[in-house]
Amino acid sequence: MSKIVDKSGYVVDEKKIIELFLELIKVDSPSKNERQLADLVKVKLTELGLEVYEDSAAAVIKGNCGNIIGVLRGEKESKAILFSAHLDTVVSNQGVNPLIDNGVVKTDGRTILGSDDKAGITAILEAIRMVQIGNRPHGDIYIVLTVAEEIGLYGSKNLDLSRINVDMSFVLDSGGPVGTIIYNAPTEEDLVIKLFGQTAHAGVNPEAGINAIQLAGQFLAQMKMGRIDDQTTANIGLIRGGIATNVVPELVEMEGEVRSTNEEKLKNVIRDMKSILTEVCNKNKARFELATNCIYITYCLDEKEPVMQTAIAAVHNLGLDSNLMAKGGGSDANIFNQRGLACVNLGIGMSGDHTNQESISLEDLFNAVRLILSIIENVYLLQDF
Amino acid sequence: MLSADRIVDEFIQLVTIDSESGAERQIADVLKSKLKDLGLVVYEDNAGEILQTDTGNIIANLPGTLTGLPTVFFSAHMDTVKPGKGVEPIVTNDIITTKGDTVLGGDDKAGIVAILETIRILKEENIPHGDIQVIFSVWEEGGLKGAKNLEFNKLKAQFGYVLDCDGPAGTIITQAPAQNSIKATIFGKKAHAGICPEEGINAILVASEAISNMQLGRIDEQTTANIGIINGGEATNIVPDKVVVEGEARSINIEKLKLQTDLISNAFIKMAQKHGTKVEVTVENVYPNINLKETDQVVQIALQAASNIDITPQLKHTGGGSDANIYNGHGIPTANLGIGMSKVHTSDEYLQIKDLMQTTQYLIEIIKIIK
Predict the structure, then answer these.
(1) I need a surface site. Which of A31, A172, A203, A355 has the fewest CB within 10 A?
(2) B236 close contact with A: CB closer than 8 A
(3) Closest chain A residue to B248 measured between Cα atoms?
(4) Per-residue pLDDT reduced to its tens digit, A357-370
């Protein structure tokens, strides 16, 4: 291993970090409406001395904002690295009322907090500021802030990679305390299932009808749902069907998803669903349509890969425990890996994400800044890697 | 004399007045005026205030030329289903249809016209009769709301006839089901579907298990059951914590109705218990049943009248509800009569002129034989 330049533990400006975090979460940025936050962040990145530009993803995804890329040029001999977080929140948090209680930032329960993923943005901006004012040595650093992550990773899917040349990428978008390293995440296929029966007047001649709701019920009662095994989950999350109580319902639509870190298992789940649907429909002279849409593909990084080695070493440098985990959700890291960038997702301590009980501990927020500095330092020191 | 031209003209006039449910003001005013001109004392009840529309049921009294006869009433509804605006009726030989996408409105303006023409003929031909009441109700379609909110203290008749059924004149509905509507809200527990679904309870799954084994459709000759609407969940990546299911049960037999309704409710309750979650079930009686016997006066008169004018009487039961259910529920024996309306509630709705004529003839005969 290499010599560590500063073993004192990265003293961070706690007050500035809290201020910045609160500032960012108060700029509402639901998916496809990240404009205001992006403009604010662009100014900050520019003031920090980065070349800043916005790609043309907005038009493709029909939002009001593209992905924001900032480049901090460094020493050519060093590996180039990328840090990423997403600008959007899962829903609007208009009127957010953040409270700090016992070292934990939370809301008053009426909105989400927005630490997913503004804690990541905060950590990135603060770390870069410390690099600049401390004149810390570094290679090329790319900052990528994506849009529309929560609704399907659309920003990263449409990110213009033409001007990005990096050797390792780090996404800051996972729960779990700093030290958590997501080396494995699943493939997700979203499903839309339509079941067609036959309409009839429910009081006068129901025998001429085929009840699509009952058939959907028979299918759902037989399919494997929830946690299927430690690698695989399936969910039907939405259902709507029928038009009136006095009409035998002709159409039911269901929406769901299947996730697995094992492609074969995922295919099997979908195959089983199709076979149950076929059986139910054949027995009842009904028919179905099942459409799948791959949202992101699984990745699995070996511990020996440079990006993993770097992340693990950086965590240990801070005196923290590393915790290598497989996560049940997807992130921009899936897309970066899919598109050829070796990328890992790092825990930054957010908890209760997507709910009004979302919170993050200040300790994790500060550690996230430290972790980025530690990664930058580690990469710089591994020039002969 | 029964004149096809006059009947058809009046029918055309009425179907071209827009009167979708809850918007019957214009047609009500036209009908009130016609009834007054025919010598009836016309009253509009307060159903309009209760229903927050601007129109109540019309209850009109034609004093009898004879005393000592039982009072009879005739009823039809003024509203049509959607789409009912801008009806363009076309008369081709004996058939009245529509251009375009609207219904015709034979349901139920054929009934209204038959009643008006009957009264006209009574007067023109000086046919003796007892007291007659005419009811033109509002908002029948989709809930029988007019009849449910009728001022029943204004209804003096001992028995009556609703004119709101398909089938030719001579079709007499003596049995119809009571209907319960059932609404179940099944709760679950949210969880992230990818990360920790095992911490959730999938409400859609609970509802599905309940529904999958239910006895639905035609249960027996007298009984039907349906689950008609389902709606639940928030997002594909969240284990859904709420589903709403709506259905109904109908039976001519009150005990069977209760049994069927309980089976459906209990299926949801049982499944919720099995999964350790909550459910709320509400049951509402939508309308009572009709169970007339052949020997009842209202049926006997209808049978006799049919025989007198050589039309074939058919005693039938229907699977649906009409204003007749409500009148019977208030203790006034009421039969629903066929008026020849066809393919109702569709843009293919049509009516044969001969059915309009025959229905009128039939009503006149019914009145003639009331003693």
Answers:
(1) A355
(2) yes
(3) A245
(4) 999 999 999 999 99
